[in-house]
Amino acid sequence: MSKLILSEATKIMDVIDEYPFLTDVLVELDPILRRFKNPILRKTVGRRATLTDVSDMINRDLNEVISFFSKKIKEATSTKVELNVGSERISGWEDEHTRKREMLKALVLELHAGGELQTLKARFKEIIGDIEATDIASMEQELIDSGELTVEQITLLCDLHVGIFEDTLAENKKPQTIPGHPIHTYMAENSEAKKIIAKLRENPSPELIKELAKIEIHYTRLENQLFPMLEKKDFAGPSQVMWAKHDETRQLFRKGEEVDLEELTSQVEDMTFKEETILFPTSLELLTTLDWQTVKHGEEEIGFAWVTPGDEWKPLTPDIIHQTPTPDITADALDLNTGKLTLEQIDLMLTHLPIEISYINTQDEVLYYSGAKERIFPRSPGVIGRKVQKCHPPKSLEKVIQIIEAFRSGRKDQAEFWITMEGKFLHIRYFAVRDDNGEYQGTIEVMQDVTSIRALEGERRLVNWED
Q1: 135 and 78 housed in the same domain
Q2: How far apart, in Å, are the Cα atoms of 28 and each of 23, 76, 82, 194, 387?
Q3: pLDDT at residue number 268
């Protein structure tokens, strides 16, 4: 006769694996437990959940739960069952947040496997209850890090992910900060976007669509200022997903008057919801005051949609006070291959060239971009030190990687593209940088608006200052 010891620490899947018939009788204890027939739930939550967790899940006394298992096993088998229940409850998870994230992962994986949204929403309310926005963001990051889902897969169904949790998220308090803080600015822009959407639905017009399109400035600041800081906290997955959704919205705006107005407005509304209930609370939890200072620095270079940031937020923290002062840059000229220039002269020269230049090193980190007054594509100091792969939307990432790898391997030294955007003809070139030994040292990106050059005809041999 076999022997089984049941305790508060016994894993439910250990028992079910040994006695498979239990999956058919668990509903007698509580209908919720029929979920353990689901292979995804068994693989994720089931492998961690103890009988203590089961009692919490169905809100039943632990001794009652253990007695139920003992009774059913004795009735169906010749196993000798002993109960060894102590006074301490033992969960399969380190803490409540970890437990919730594991259960969230099970729900999302089931959704990706074809689970029905309304059923999953009902299950969420049954077994999880309230949830923090940071748990959702952490769950997505863990799914990406583990390789269980790709960024593209999460992007494809991220609206449905939020759909599972939207009722609870909507009840969560939205982040409140003071004027001048980046989150306050983002929230103010979202508020203006909602007002424009209301006007559009009441009285559609091309002018209002064009006005709403200014939300793209808001997205660009997120991508260039906030997302890099989250990446430094090893939290890149959710922001990559949101960037992909930004690009979907941009494509809708490109349709102009031909756009499906309901699709467009719903897309913008969904993004504001995700920002205010997931992205912003998570960012406020992860980033320090000094991090927010970095996010704020450079926002002006990109600009703002509809609002002017306040100036009430003036943080003063020990981190800021005790930062190592930046050493003064001397004005001494630097010896170059064909002359000498000071750092100031080099900076002025690069800034005044009629092209935009950026440089990445051998580690694919952005070290520099020229600060031209008029930019083809928005850039801000947030990109400095950032991996170049993170500076491009997901849809163009593969192309960027191909170019860099071709340069690094020595197969190619140059790549070029030309596109038409908003009436401008743009020439974009990439050059491999190599030292005297031919070793790869980085890549230069050069962009130029060549619309006027392309339109030149004939000759001009004299200066004409009237043009």
Answers
A1: no
A2: 10, 15, 22, 49, 54
A3: 95
